[in-house]
Amino acid sequence: MYALAPSILSADFAALGEDVKKVENAGAQYLHIDVMDGDFVPSLSLGMPVIRSIRKKSDMVFDVHLMMSHPEPYIEEFADCGADIITVHAEACRHLHRTLRQIRDCNVKAGVSLNPATPLSVLEYVLDQTDMVLIMSVNPGFGGQSYIESSTNKIWKLREWIKREQLNVDIEVDGGVGLNNARTILDAGANILVAGSAVFNGDCAANVKAFLDILNDYNE
Ligand SMILES: O=C(CO)[C@@H](O)[C@H](O)COP(=O)(O)O
Ligand SMILES: [Fe+2]
């Protein structure tokens, strides 16, 4: 299944509910929610009260990307707020295997994210405990950055590995994704595209539709 995950980091926070409805009505299946702690990444974004509020307004798959050091004490609360997928960073978890179990124990899908400099090998003993791998194609912390080209090869290698092991793991790509590079990323083996500025800058309904036209070619 191929899907678009608009990142609300680039939405208008003064009209967040309306922006969420716009992308949902335009057909986006996932909503990507970036949580930043000012420690793991050099920025702060939003947290539980915001997620709880928008959960009441949307039926999209809530894809919560935790850019937090040591997220373990907060997992249950994020699940309770309405997360459908919780993604933690491999670099931020001392006991990644345990954290993935903790997420699945909340009946939520478990994701692992890798920074651009982190090798795929950190997944070796957890890939079978993972529902989604989020390949960061920028250094996390901000929207609107440029796609790091070496990410394409990383996606390719990961998809080959998943196929070889006959696992059912989604590959999501986040950072600098636009209409210009979407097909390259999908051809490499990703099936979920995060897009912040490419969706929310300009006419977001039209932008979502343009992404979905591309994704539909792969869904066939
Ligand atoms: O996690 C992050 C940034 O750390 C992302 O989800 C961004 O919000 C993506 O923004 P664009 O690169 O698509 O503008
Ligand atoms: Fe993100």
UniProtKB/TrEMBL annotation:
Catalyzes the reversible epimerization of D-ribulose 5-phosphate to D-xylulose 5-phosphate. It comes from Diplocloster modestus. Substrate binds at residues 7, 65, 141-144, 174-176, 196-197. This is Ribulose-phosphate 3-epimerase. NCBIfam families: PRK05581.1-4 (NF004076), rpe (TIGR01163). Keywords: Carbohydrate metabolism, Isomerase, Metal-binding. The active site is at 34 (proton acceptor), 174 (proton donor). InterPro entries: Aldolase_TIM, Ribul_P_3_epim, Ribul_P_3_epim-like, RibuloseP-bd_barrel. GO terms for molecular function: D-ribulose-phosphate 3-epimerase activity. CDD domains: RPE. Its EC number is 5.1.3.1.
